[in-house]
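Worked example

This section walks through a single chain of length 448. The input is the sequence exactly as stored; nothing has been trimmed or padded.
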Amino acid sequence: MLAATEKSTAQVDGLDTAHSWHPFTQMQEHLAHPRLHIARGEGCWLYDTEGKRYLDGNASIWTNVHGHNDPELNAALTDQLGKIAHSTMLGLSHPMGSELAAALCGISPDNLSRVYYSDNGSNAVEIALKLSFQYWQLTGKSEKTGVIALTDAYHGDTFGTMAVGDSGVFHDRFSHWTFPVEHVVSPTCEEAGGIVGEEVMAASLMQLDELLELRAANTACLIMEPWIQGAAGMRLQPRGFLREVAERCRKHHVHLIVDEVFSGFGRVGPLLVCKEEGVEPDFLCLAKGLTAGYLPLAATLTTEPIFEAFLGGFEEYKAFYHGHTFTGNPLAAAVALKSLQKLQARIASGEHAATIAAFEQAVAEYAVGSPLFPVVRQRGLAAALELPEHPVAERTGLQVSLEARKHGLITRALGDSLLVVPPLVISPDEIAYLFQQLTRATEVVLNS
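Given that input, the structure is written out below as tokens.
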């Protein structure tokens, strides 16, 4: 018997079909296939409105850290809910926002001392860009307006982040309204196949050196994703490249914006890649895993000298005029603080490293060398398994994702690249299940 407020699957499907417009989704295609409606989650598993169970193979779009319905995160959320759900940070503060800001500075490189909250990764990057631009204006160097980015980058879908991205069909039709950006070729490596990428890294750095020699005086900032370009299909970057880029930015007085929206909070191994590489960026952008997949929250961290450049009398109009209604939401901040504490304990205990080792072993066992997946990329708890090349219209990656649902697995393809991004707490048995079911689904589609 359905509860008074609970609707049947058919009712939910009717409402979704009639009224929803899903992101990054061709709706004609979406409506042509059976829809899946997720009703609840438990650990690494999701349950649909029919009660069927699926392993969450994409961590609810790369955000989930501790699993769904985690008791400790639930308790942190409900405890804060009993105090206040939301209070603005526009001229006010609240305990959770202040505590989380201190905690984020505590895990970040030593030079980062200030936190500017927003509610998603695009805005975290947008804020970093605007802060950099305004800083140079305030310090008498208004000619520094240029931006350097990497090819194949994805930093979000607001206009500033589209400008600094290089995401092809995602953003091409909006190029008329974005500002020009210089791009350096992103060095890539395929660690699962033994290619570590020294030569391509050297070529990229040479290109960057030449560009900085010519344009540094007019360049405000360089932005990059460290170690892995997630939305580009988990394109791996040689380790140490971030450190080399940071040295060049410092030498040429160009701000370094490190976008760890995807790579941060243990996704590719360390808590933060920039801290692991000993890099002190001018801006650090965080989101996704920040609240363990519970609530929207993002943060842009920066330095005290940059903060101080914005100080002055009201009549000087130095203030940073940027903000969002739910900036630093107390509920999200409370969950983020508890999640960070749990994640730090998990890393310190060795559990996180053991999970990564099990994941890496499964990639080697099920994917590397398999004719099903000619190219395999993996770092930490993120992998991309490339399918054999097919015409775009065949939508082979989508077909595998749809078939995977029949095998109790939710995954998401980017074109014909199967992206595997599970919750960080996935168990060895669940990892094996994930790759077994993904392999079976792929075999069904490729052999049909």
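What to look for: The longest strand covers residues 112-118.
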